[in-house]
Specification:
Length: 296
Amino acid sequence: MSNAVVERAPAKLNLYLEVLGKREDGFHELATVMTSLDLADDVTVTLRPRRQGLARGIPDVTLEASTLAPFVGELPAPEDNLMSRAAVLFLSTRGLLHSHGVDLELLKRVPAGGGLGGGSSDAAAVLRALGRSHDGAVDPAALTPLAAALGSDVPFFLYGGTCMCKGRGEQVSPIDPPRSFDVVLLLPPFGVSTPAVYAAMQAPALHASTTSVDHDALVDAYADADTARLRALYRNDLEGPAARVEPRLARMLAGGGVGLSGSGSTLFVMGREVPATVCLEDIPSIECVRSRAGGR
Ligand code: C5P
């Protein structure tokens, strides 16, 4: 039971993000399509017997992190980061806190603060690995309540591929079959605060959870991996607020031809080439990275 499990923790893009209104709990009700990327962190998780001599009540979870990511912010501190919290939550819900510990290793490639969901994906990878180690299999539906307690985007990463996500993001419906397609990621050398972007939106109170997404058209476009149709269906209601919070994004977004992932800062193009209309000089030292989206 103490073998290490290695999980890929892919980044994500939001290909469609509609904000339906602000809820009474302060979160925003969403209809969003998320797709996983081949850009990924590596997460290694070892479930083992609890070390002797630790004070009672202190969870036995260790974390070592290193990075290959461009423009990475601070690496997660060993305590109180989303990966450690995922491990503690799993141990406590399975009644293992007094008998077991977890060692976590993270090799980071996904830049932080970029709307790519790196931290959420790392946490989901911890839950999947512990599911494999302890339960013998990963059951995304059974792990979803734990994932949702950690963050709105975490449940998506239990599934991967391309999914329609509703509620605050935690109600996940896979769009099958998973088909992959090319994207170019444009990674600015700065991140954007998600709470600041939602606050800048000043969304009206939620009245009805009716989305204007053309679900059938989206499913057809994904089934064909048709980037021209997917581009036509793209929407992100957080573009305006993100541009107000981070004016360096405003010029790039105003020029058209690029999408914004989540609350930013990552911009992206569906397809293999950045159109000539996109002026990369608007953000000095922005990094272009080719990637594949949608595969599982
Ligand atoms: O769920 P998570 O911790 O990732 O959310 C971070 C912040 O983003 C929240 O505190 C909230 O300010 C904002 N948020 C929101 N509505 C969502 C998701 C996130 O307002 N659906």
